Structures are given as structure tokens and as C-alpha cells.
Amino acid sequence: MARSVLVTGVAGSFASLFARRLADLGEGAGIGKVVGIDTMLPPGDLGGVKFVRADIRTPVVGKVIAVEDVDTVVHLDVNPPKRGRAGGAKELNVIGTMQLLAACQRSATVKKFILGSSTAVYGSSPRDPAMFTESLLARDGVRSGFPKDIVEVESYVRGFARRRPEVLITTLRAAQILHPSIDTPLATYFSSPVLPAVMGFDPRLQFTDLRDAFAVLEQSIVKDRPGTFNIAGDGVVLLSQAARRLGRPVIPLPPIGFATAARRVLRAAGSDIPPDLHRLLTYGRVVDTSALRDIFGYELTRSSMDTFDEFRESLRPGIMSAVGGRA
Amino acid sequence: MTDERKTIGSAGKAGRGNRQTSPSAAARALAGGSAVKKPVAKAKPSAGSTPAPKTKQPVAEPAAKKTAKPSARKSAAKTAATAPPAQPKPRLRAVTDEDAAAAAAAAAEEAAKRTRTAGSAPLSAGIPLDDIVVALIQAAQRVLGTDWEARVATLLATIRKRMSGDYEVDEFGFDPQITEVLTAAIEPLAEKWFRLEVRGIENIPAEGGALLVANHSGTVPIDGLITGYAVKKYSGRNLRPLGADLVFSLPFVGQVARKVGATLACTEDAERLLTTGELAGVWPEGFKGIGKPFAERYKLQRFGRGGFVSSAMRAQVPIVPVSIVGAEEIYPLVGNVPSLARLLGLPYLPITPFFPLLGPLGMIPLPSKWIIEFGEPIRTDAYDPESADDPMLLFNVTDQVRETIQQTLYGLLVDRGNAFF
Q: Does the pTM exceed 0.80?
């Protein structure tokens, strides 16, 4: 039986690309229909995706699931806030997930629920272990912003799993994707002409390759892979190393008042810093992806450094690249 | 030299003169044309190497010499430093001795030429430039060996790679290159200042995981640094210290700690390191150990909750007890300001006989004599990994490790004699 897949948040850059790709896979991969839902029109062409303009925060989403006979829900509408709509992001992330899960709970057709989560769920603190496995929780707790949203979203999904044990639930916690066409906070940050960094800290960062993210999502739709899995390129990139590779100057700022100061600096340089990056840029975060390899059965094709380098090539070389001697 | 060429009275307002070398307009009027002679007299010191005849300004001549000398020396040093490395940089080929000699000769000649043109100041009298260049090259050869040009080229290539971010760190943030540099930097501190003696280095397994368990002391955890140095220097392996979370929350300290291979002391990290065959180091006394008063020196505190034993048992690696003598005396802790420490979020705020009193000078560690003994490994593979959950067994093994270290400490103290001499 061909699947009918509902993808939420298709106005986002990643979700729209993914939905389109899924529709292109078509019957050959066992995907009959792809329905995209969002409140805004997607920026590009969605190809074979059937777009429904609706708000997942309203019960309309239940009707969409019923009408389209959806059996697989891919929830990608959990996004870090952008500057200017910080209040709205929480509303969309948490309330949207609640409504969507309520609709899925009612529906008799939904067999599979895939949550596009983030490694932000682990938080960032000096008490972190070197690498997070899926069973670990944020050490210092998460206080605010997107990490708190994502923790709440995951807890709702776990609640849904308890109430509908027959639905297969896959939670994919991905590190931030670095790709010129995908809009993530770190991609925005690295595109700035100067990089404000927290003085005295050199965080370890990880990135996910776009193709790896697509492949893991596809496989979790086509195959049955219930569970929680981390996705991030192998290895780590230090922030100082990343800045040198980009040839962009690092501006060390004191840890106290970093967010405000960094914003000022970037505004002056004609750019902006996405919110909620402060702790990640202080303590960094590394996850263990052995579960993805051993249990899920997917071998990541690109390391964090490869992903970063590919992204770097899409940017203009920074002003320091003459010193670094990197072409 | 330039001030001598100034036109008359240019230092002050027009016609005012500058009181020393150029008389004022009024003075010139009084003297009646004698001022014209001055430039002629002044040209002399810069013209030749012969001592200038006694003129009105005996001060001017040594000053001119003084300014000429450093500039000549600087340019010589500059040519010696820049010219030879510039040659191997474009193509990294094997450098033969003839090449080195030719480069040295060329550099010497160029340096000489430059200094000759640099100024008309008397040079040949005082500074044997050729000798300096030759001496510099010889010094480079002595410090870096006969293949010094290749070495310099490699060094430059390494620096270039670092600058362009072309290096790898592992998941823990461990950077082997930085660690090597820091190890070399610590060497004088360990060998000359602390006169470190290392015993039982053969007890560190040549390969495979092992857990080093050491006593902790000295107010500031320098013992961890020196242990890491000793392991690297004498066994060639990298020690991966497990540190408290405070280390990683401090700016700069946490960053360097991660780069030299440290990670948080938690079971996940310990087991990850040990199962991948790394050499992990723990100081189970923690802050109770380093922050204890000087009067209680070499009395081991409680060894945590025995978590390190369970980690070693799960990973089935041996435990190497490490006894460190000498760290207690570097900063004798005679007082503590608990209220201020709590305010700053620190476990204690040390007062040593010198610390707040002498300011930064009090932060210099006292030169005590150090002995580090690596004891016989305690095997854990006799127990099965499941017994890591048996608290009674854990306490027993913890006590065994603690007793071993305590007994070794007493022995080492007797061996060492006086703490400082």
C-alpha cells in the first residue's frame, strides 16, 4: 500500500525541500501522496506536493488528516525562532505540536509519527558529558527559548506514544544543518562578516549534512525504525577552527552580556545573530551517533568537517583568508 | 641625526631658537653672523668614523652613535631571520649543507650591504656584522640541528596549517599539537623548578586502556598538569585527565583543559575513554584533596563514591595507583575565606603565606621537590563487568587503592627528606 505522508511546516526551507524530494521519490519508494501544510506559502515550487494552507494550531489539521487519509505524519514544524517573531515561535512549536498530536490521536489512519527534533534538547552546560547519547537528559536543565520548546515538544510526543502505543514513533535529534539553501541559526551566524565569540571558550560544534538528514528521514518513513536517534556528522569542529577556515575574524566578547554585545557587533557589521545561540557558542555540544549506525542502520556519509567545508565553499572567503593562506 | 639637520630655530617658534644647538634670533643678532658656521661644524660627526673635534655640543655625537647602532643590529638580525627561511618555503626540498652554506653567505653579504647603506654612521669600528650573522646561523644549527632549514620550514608549514584551521581534534576536543607544545613548555617547571623524579613508569601499560588514580593536593591542581607531563614525557602516551565541572565553566581554563585532553569526570566520559583504549586519570579526592589545610598534608581524604572503580570494572581495565609527593608544599594553604568563596562560586578561597600578601608574586609555586610513583596496576578483569554494581566490592577496591597510595606516600616522604632542598 502506498503511503500518504503529511509534512508540516513546508514553508520552511528544509521542510519544503524535503517534501518535494519525497514527492519525487513517488510510488517506487512506496510513497503515494505527499501533503504539505503550513500557514504561509512555501518560498519555492513544491513539485508534486499537495499544499494545504492551514494552521496546525487549529483543529483543521484533524480534518486534513482524515480527508487525505494520512498514515504517516512527519512533523518538521519545530523551528528555532528568528529575530522578530521570538514569541510566535514558541506558540507555533509547542501549541502546534499539541494540536497535531491531538489530531493524530483521534485519527484511525495514522500509523507512524516522525518528529524532526534537534540536539538542542540536550542543552549546553559545563556539566555536559563529552558526548550525549540518546538516553541522557540536559544536565543543567533548559531554561528558555528553543531548547525549552523542544524539550516540551518531545515530552508531548512521548505522552502520545503512551496513549497510542501501536503508532510507530521516530524522534530524530539532528544537529544543525549547514547548507547554503537551508536557513539554520548557525548557518546565519557563520555567514556574518565577523564572528562574535565568548571570550575564553572554544565550543565544540557538530553539523549535519543535508543529504544525510534527507536520507535518514526517508528511511524512517519507508522502513520502520521506532526510537530516538541522534544525527550529526562525525567528529567535531571547534569554533576557533571554523573561524580560521572561513577566514573571518573572531571578536571575543565577555560571557556576561554576550547576547546583547554580539547583537550590537553584528548589527554594526550589517548582519544579525539568531537568538538562543549564546549557550551553544559557550559550551558547545557533541552527540553520539552510534545508535543511528547500529540500531537504525544508517551510515552517515559526511563528517562535521566535510559538511562545514562544503558550506564554506558557498560563502565568500573572509577578510582574514589572506593571512590563513587558504584559497 | 635628524635634529642636526634642522634649520636654525625650527624647534620653537620662528626666531626663538631651541636653546641648545640653534641660537635664537636675538642671539644671532648679537653674535653677528657667527651662526652660519654651525651647520659645517655639525656635519662632522656624521661624516667620518674619526672622533669629532671638540665642538660646542659634545653630547650630540654619542647620541648619534647610539641611534645608529641598534638600527644596524636590527637590520642584521632581520636579514638573518627572514632571508634563510624564505628560501625553503616555496618548495620543500631536502636542504644540503652546501645550500645552507650558500644561503648563509648570501645572507651575510646582504646583511652587510644593507647596513652599509643604512647610514653613514661608523659601523666597522664596533660591530662585526659578518660574525653576528655567522653566529646566528650557528646558533640556529646548534638549537635545531644541522637540518635546521628543513625544521624551520616544517615549523612554518605547521603554523600555516594552524592559521588556516587545517587540523583535527577528537570528540573530546583533544588537540595533540597544542598538547605537545604545552608539554615542552611545562618541562622546565617540572624538571628544573620541581626537580621531578618519576618512578615505576613501566607500570603504565604500553597500550590499551588504564585508569590512573592519584592523590590530589596543592591548592591549585598543578599536580594534574605535572602528572600529564610525566606520563607524556616518560611513557609517550597521552593522559586524559577527568576534571570537575568547575574546570569547564571557567573561561580560558576550560578551553585549555579540553585541548590538552581533559574531560568531565562522569561515568559516561570515563567509560568512553577507557573502552576506546585511552589512559584516563582521576583525582578522586577532588576539592577536598586540593583544598585541605597545610597541616593535613599527605593525609588522603575520602575517595569519592568509588565511581572510578566501577568505570574501570565496566571497561575491564587496570587501575594504576599514582602517588604524588611534592604538590602539597607548592601553595601551603593556611587559611580560607569560605564566605567570599561562596560568593564567587568557588569551593574555597585560598590564603597561603604569600598569596594575597605579595599579590601576583605570591602565585609563584614554591620550589618543592616532587616524586611521582606509578604503582603496580590493580587488575579489574578478574571481576565480571556486572559486579560494578556491587557496592560492597566497590568499597573494598576503592579502599585498596586508597591504602596503596597512602602507604606509598609515607615511603616516598621518607625517601625525599627535606621538602625543598
A: no
